[in-house]
Amino acid sequence: MQIAMIQDEIVPMEEVGSVYLDRGVFFGDGVYEVVRSYNGKVFALEEHLQRFAKSLAAIGITKVDIDEVRARVQQAFDTAGISNAKIYFHITRGSAPRNHVYDKNLEPNFFLTVTELADDTEAKNKGIAVSTHPDWRWKRCDIKSLNLLPNVLARQDAAGKGCAEAIFVDDAGLITEGASSAFFGIFGQRLQTAPLANNILPSITRGFVIEANKNVGLELVEKSFTPAQAADADELFIAVTTQDIVPVVKFDDKIIGDGKPGSSTKQLMAEFQSLVL
Ligand code: PDD
User: Fold this and answer.
1) Which terminus of the chain has fewer CB atoms gathered within 10 Å of its CB, N or C?
2) Is the CB of 267 under 6 A from ligand 1?
3) Across the strands, what pairs with 245?
4) Is the pTM for the entire model greater than 0.70?
């Protein structure tokens, strides 16, 4: 008899629910997105859907209609009635008994949550501390995959050090990005961040920071930098959908600037808000 055991209960294999057999659980075999709303309006949904479509294509999940995903996101958001919401959704390849090789006819599984965004006023006003962590991820970080174990371990390590984000450092000693954010440094009039490549996520917020900077006028340099250079920066910040721009005032043990959010970062934050409203 083929069986499964769920907690302490023996279940015949054919009665095991599809949630337990989800390839997302076995293999992280799926991709996800996080979108947010500002004041009752979903922000940058098309950009997120485009990236989602690319992630799906990159891992060969072909049966998904993006128009339907858009409709589901909108329907769920409207139903929740949360004005500043975080909308998480993922699609996994489907459910089947564990086997690395998959059947191309599997029906993908869709899952979505709409929750209230946490109040981040204090983080934005005071800035956050971050700590570095080795980048243990795979070579396709441009895919927004459900495989987030390195990110989880890095964030947990940072939290244990009282830090709000972990900053990944690759084998060459260069910063790639945050464990769940893009990372920027300001050096004089230069705004610097890692170039888009397979080793980082093409962050939607990163794109809007670059857009916001057109009105701030810093020189954009898409070139990776080291932790030592970051520690010496005039200003640092992270960028992520759920929080847009958050100033970084402590990098490992080093206080950045005067330990308060810097003026260029504040200008970028203000410009960002004007893109949102
Ligand atoms: N994280 N880099 C990584 C590794 C990320 O996981 C994220 C987002 C970003 C920022 O991307 P965007 O600007 O598109 O949100 C960069 C999401 C929010 C998460 O995993 O919860």
Assistant:
1) N
2) no
3) 239
4) yes
Can you tell me the distance from the alpha carbon of 189 to that of 125, in angstroms, rounded to the nearest whole number?
22
Residue 230 Cα to ligand 1 midpoint, Å, equals: 20
Q: Do 20 and 126 lie in a common domain?
A: no
What is the distance in A from the centroid of ligand 1 to the CA of 188?
27
Domain that holds residue 81: 3-116
Residue 132 and residue 106 in one domain: no
Of 36, 31, 27, 67, the C-alpha closest to 51 is 31
197 in the same domain as 97: no
Given pLDDT bands bounded at 50, 70 and 90, which one contains residue 63?
confident
Residue 51 CA: which ligand 1 atom is closest? 14
Site to substitute for ligand 1 among 241, 245, 272, most atoms within 8 A of C-beta:
241
Secondary structure class of 210 (helix, strand, coil): helix
Same domain, 189 and 131: yes
CB 207 within 8 A of CB 240: no
The catalytically annotated residue of 41, 54, 144, 266 is 144
243 lines ligand 1 (CB under 6 A): no
pLDDT in tens, 202-215: 999 999 999 999 99
**Are residues 127 and 222 located together in one domain of the fold?**
yes
In this prediction, residue 277 has a pLDDT band, given cuts at 50, 70 and 90, of confident
Give residue 253's pLDDT band: very low, low, confident or very high (50, 70, 90). Answer: very high
Across 135-204, the runs of DSSP E, i.e. the strands, are 165-169, 175-178, 182-187, 190-193
Nearest CA to ligand 1 atom 9: 181
Q: Does the beta carbon of 182 sit less than 6 angstroms from any atom of ligand 1? A: yes
CATH of the domain at 102: 3.30.470.10
Give the DSSP H/E element, type plus range, for residue 133. Answer: strand 128-134
User: Using CA positions, which residue lies closest to atom 3 of ligand 1?
Assistant: 180
144 is catalytic: yes
Residues 92, 148 share a domain: no
User: Domain ends where: 66, 82, 116?
Assistant: 116
